Amino acid sequence: MLEKIQQTKAFLASKTQLKPKAGIVLGTGLGNLSTEIKIETAIPYEEIPNFPVSTVEGHSGKLLFGTLNGIPVVAMQGRFHYYEGYSLQECTFPIRVMKALGIEQLFLSNASGGVNANFEVGDIMLITDHINLLPDNPLRGKNISELGPRFPDMSEPYAKNLIASVKQIAKDNNIKIQEGVYAALSGPTFETPAEYKFIQIIGADAVGMSTVPEVIVARHMDIPCMALSIITDLGVDGKIIEISHEEVQQVAKAAEPKMTLIIKELLAKLHN
Predict the structure, then answer these.
(1) Number of domains in the chain
(2) Model confidence over 215-237: pLDDT tens digits?
(3) What is the C-alpha to C-alpha distance for residues 93 and 87, in angstroms, rounded to an integer?
(4) Contact between residue 113 and residue 231 where contact means Cβ atoms under 8 Å apart
(5) What CA–CA distance (Å, rounded) separates 98 from 121?
């Protein structure tokens, strides 16, 4: 793993001189946030040694180096998922590489189904905690002590100072945001009504198929995380309707400008 990380880092260093301060993972329907990044270098995943290749519509599969609000960043335009057949170690490998490149924070985004009765389609949820319902953990197996401890603390998976900053930014810009717990399932099926009910009972507010493995790996390496989720459908009694991936993308795209503004302002606050 360490050899692979160094090999990938060396390849990327040969392509760009940029030293990213923050890493960004652009999820479903959020790839267009990249239009706000002043891109210096864009590298397709298939050209990057040891990277998997994204197979999901709406995830274009490029690693972007550039500046956002004048701050140097590295962004994943499209992520990797367990349901694509990759191991969680493969899914989270890019986060390992981002740490090697020197990022100081990780910002993540996703689309999710809301199970909180107070949520509406199109809401942005600031993730305050998560529940890992995936059938694996990216840290399973021999621990690499150079990357982090055998038993990482997860008492603050999402940094409280970043959560407070996002809430203030949203308030200052009159953006309505919800807060809640995100549960991760393997997918690729959307949830049944009974599964939505189960997820609500165990204490989650939204459910999706990503983000949690990336946060686990980031926290293993002591990277502070902030994550935003767009509620693209509702798993609430009486509001459950048939949903397609295309509809999820459309809702996510509509909420994208607000997400972009929050991330730009947060970067400026942290690094200016």
Answers:
(1) 1
(2) 999 999 999 999 999 998 888 88
(3) 10
(4) yes
(5) 32
pLDDT at 99 exceeding the cut of 90:
yes
Q: 126: helix, coil or strand?
A: strand
Residue 86 sits in which domain range?
2-271
CA within 13 Å, CB half, 131: 16
Give the model's pLDDT for residue 101. Answer: 97
**Tens-place pLDDT, residues 157-171:** 999 999 999 999 999
Mean pLDDT for 236-260 is 78
Q: E strands within the chain?
A: 22-26, 38-44, 62-68, 71-77, 105-114, 124-132, 177-184, 206-208, 225-234
CATH number at residue 178: 3.40.50.1580
Q: What number of other Cβ atoms are within 10 A of residue 134's Cβ?
A: 21
Compute the distance between CA of residue 184 and CA of residue 268 in angstroms, rounded to an integer.
30
- Smallest CA-to-CA distance from 67 within 107, 30, 36, 98 is with 36
Cα dihedral 19, 25, 30, 33 in deg (nearest 10): -10
Buried b (16+ CB within 10 A) or exposed e, 205-242: bbbbbbbbbbbbbbbbbebbbbbbbbbbbbbbeeebee
pLDDT (0 to 100) of residue 61 = 87
Three-state DSSP state, 86: coil
- Which tokens hold the place of 48? 């990057």
